[in-house]
Amino acid sequence: MIDFKWSPVLSIYPFSRGFAFVLFEGPNNPFDWGVKDIKEKHRNEKTLDAIKELIDRYNPDAIIIEETGVGGARRSSRIRKLYRSLTHLCNTELIDLHRFPPSAIKRYFEPVGAVTKYEIAKAIGRAVPAFAHRMPKVRKPWMSADPKQSLFDAAALGLVYFGSRGIRSPYQDADDEQVNTSVK
Amino acid sequence: MQNKRTGPLCYLRTHRRKWGLSQKDLARLIGTIGCAQLSRYENSKRAPKVEVALACQVIFGVIPSIMFLDTYASVEEEVMRNMARMDEALENTTSLTGLRKRELFSLALGRAIAKHRRSKQL
């Protein structure tokens, strides 16, 4: 049997009504992605079961979540508890867990002028064509977040992970272009 | 219990979703299969028929050996095993046909090794 080099990375972004995931083979190659709705009681248990299913199915090398500690994202106590359970799950499954705060995501997308979540989603849509047709609507202050937005939040975490590993970012070309135009 | 995956099995689902196609859309494009069969191909529960593999190449522009990686790997393994058996049987041959066959086997083996090395380097 051919020994494929398969070292995917699973980024997960939970939200109030479920969670979004993106399985990356590389920064430009998402292999699988989706938003799973988990609405009823015991959401954390159900979310963990769904994540466990993904782990069993894809056997990822690393799982990426956001940092919620000091200087991290402000998330509800349920989601912080979910992250703790996920940390435990990763320890038992011997999978590397990486956390990135929102500031790292903002830093990563700063060169392409993306600051807000929507701008970051647009930047991801431009660089990764698989997500281009899944863009969320622009969110007005009175609207709740579009579940599709969480897919881009998960994708952003994955891209930041590849950036932290020194793997060429899909925005590198855009950076180079910007530098060239500013020189002209 | 489900076996842990050591490699990507099939890129059909990835390519289908990348272009925003539903299983129903793709089944209609291919024309000879239904959604249930397509799902079996996507989850590597069945090997695709050659018409389906070629239809996928027409639609996505990806060759079947890359699109259906797992099927290709199992076919390659089987063929290589048969080839080794036949090569062993032809070990002491001096006929021109026999030598020509062994030349083909060594070329096929070389290609398989080169492909294996490339996939390891990626």
The portion of residues forming beta strands of chain A comes to 15-25%
Helix/strand structural class of chain B:
mainly alpha
Which residues of chain B form runs of ≥5 with pLDDT under 50?
A: none
Report the order of strands and helices of chain B. HHHHHHH
Number of strands of chain A: 5
End-to-end separation of chain A: 53 Å
Please compute the radius of gyration of chain A using only Cα atoms.
Answer: 17 Å
From the spread of the alpha carbons, the general shape of chain B counts as: elongated
Q: Describe the biggest sheet of chain B?
A: none
Name the beta content range of chain B.
Answer: under 5%
What is the oligomer described by this structure? heterodimer
Please outline the major beta sheet of chain A.
Answer: 5 strands, mixed
The number of helical segments of chain B is: 7
Task: Please write the string of helix (H) and strand (E) elements of chain A.
Answer: EEEHEHEHHHHH
Q: What is the approximate shape of chain A? A: globular
Strand line-up across the major sheet of chain A: 3-2-1-4-5
C-alpha end-to-end distance of chain B: 30 Å
Q: Flag low-confidence runs of chain A.
A: 179-184
Largest interface: A-B, 19 and 22 residues
Radius of gyration of chain B: 18 Å
The amount of helix of chain A comes to 40-55%
